TrEMBL record:
Belongs to the peptidase M42 family. Keywords: Aminopeptidase, Hydrolase, Metal-binding, Protease. Gene3D superfamilies: Peptidase M42, domain 2, Zn peptidases. InterPro entries: Peptidase_M42, Peptidase_M42_aminopept, Peptidase_M42_dom2. Pfam families: Peptidase_M42. One of its GO terms (biological process) is proteolysis. This is Peptidase M42 family protein. GO terms for molecular function: aminopeptidase activity; metal ion binding.
Amino acid sequence: MNKFKRLEDQLRELTAIPSPSGFEEPMIKYMYEKAKAYGIKAEVDSLGNVITSFGASSKGPKIMIIAHMDEVGMIVRKISSHGFLRVEKIGGIPEKILLGCKVLVKAEKGDFIEG
């Protein structure tokens, strides 16, 4: 597999994990388990940050990488009698891109509904 196909596959895998702000647990678990699978020391702190380190004994420069694990999302505030969802934005979603976008709705029991 060439490196670009591998990168594409990894990005597709990452972006398929639902992790709106405040509900990042699936991404935290994924990142932690992926690090462990590669033999990288990993821990999750009390705030849900996944902290990894490797090559710490190296005499070269130290590098720190910080990235968000959450994504913008919406929270359902009401379901109308006709089945329409009334939502509130979580994060900075530009309203003009919402029309026609596919969404993934997490139901009360935890399963996801695509729409």
